[in-house]
Amino acid sequence: MAILKLLIVSREERASSLDTLFNGIAKHLDTRIIKLTKTQRNDFTNTVNQLGHENYDRVMIDVPLTRIGKHYKVLRKVSGLILYEQDAWMEFSEHSKYRNKFIKRYRSIGPCRLILTGYYIGERVRSAGLDVVAIPKSYDENHLRNLHIDRDIELGYIGRIKTRVYRDRRPFLEKLVAEHDLQMLRTEPGEEYLRTLNRIKIFVSADIGFREYMAKNFEAMACGCMLFACRQGGQEEERLGFRHMENVVLYDDMDDAQGKLAMLRDNPGLVAAVARKGEELVRERHTMGSRVKPYVEAITAEIMPVQALQRPPSRWRRFFGG
Question: Is the pLDDT of residue 312 over 70?
C-alpha cells in the first residue's frame, strides 16, 4: 500500500513553532513542509495556485482563517484539504470581529477536515455540518522544560492584552496587578520565554470566555509553574486531565480568583505540590510528540462532505407539532 503524500503549508512568522509536531508526522507519511513568507501569505491565492497541490493526497493548511482573509475562496479547488485552525473559538466570542464568520466560510469551501484545538468548540462547529476532529494544543518538549532554577516571580503572566478579542482579559489582569502584585511580562520566543517561565511560581492564565485552553497553559506547566487558570467548562478539564487543587487551580470569576490567590499565598507547600503534579501531567499527555498519532489518524481518514444544516421548524409547525 502506497504511503499517503502530504503537503503541509505553514508560515515562517509563527509565534510558536510546530516543527516538532510536523517532523513527527513526517515519520509516518510522505511529507513536504512549506513555510510561507509574509509576502506569500499576503498573496495567498497565487501562492496556493503555485503549490502543485494536485500532486498530494492531503494538503494541510496551517494558516489561520483570520490571516487568509478574502483569499479563502481559493481553497475550494484543493482536494484532500485539512485545515488546522487554532482560533475557531473566535466564532463564538462577542468581542471578535470574526464572530459568526468561521462556520460560514468553512461551509463555503466545501469538503475539508477541520482540526480544531478545543473539545467544546469542536462539537459546536461539528454541529454545523462540518467534518471536525478536536486535538488540543500542546507544548514543544524539545524546547520547553523545568530548569530547576530559583523562582523569583511569585505571580506572573506572559502574553498579550491589547487586542479587541482579549477585552475581558485586560481588566482582570490589571486588577491582579494592582491588588496582588501580578507581574505582566512580554518575552521573545525561545530562550527568553523558557527562562522567564522558569522564574514564575504561579502562572496566571486569563483565557476568559475562550471555552478552550491555549498552549501557554501546557507550556507553563511543563516549565514547573503552578497553573492558575480560568475554568473553561464543557468537560474540557475532564478530557484534558485537569484536576482542580491536584494538578491545576481553577477559578470562575474575579472574586473566586482573589480568594484562591490569598489561600495559595498562605500555602506554599500546596503550590509546589500542584505544580509538580501539573508538570507530570503535561509530560505524560500533552507533548507535541503525543499529538502525532491523532494527527496522522485525522489526516489519513476519509474526509466527509459538508452536511446540510437542519432548518428549525416554522412557527406553524411548532404550534401544531408537525
Answer: no
The architecture in CATH of the region 5-138+288-300 reads 3-Layer(aba) Sandwich (3.40)
Query: What secondary structure does DSSP assign to 200-266, as a single string?
Result: EEEEEP--TT-SS--HHHHHHHHTTPEEEEE---TTHHHHHT--BTTTBEEESSHHHHHHHHHHHHT
Question: What residues are paired with 251 via a beta bridge?
Answer: 230
CB 67 within 8 A of CB 75: no
* pTM (two decimals): 0.91
What count of other Cβ atoms lies within 10 Å of the Cβ of residue 308? Answer: 7
Give me 76's grid cell. Answer: 475550494
* Greatest C-alpha distance within the chain: 70
Chain centroid to Cα 235, Å, comes to: 16
**Side-by-side strand order, sheet with 249-251:** 183-185, 153-158, 200-204, 226-230, 249-251
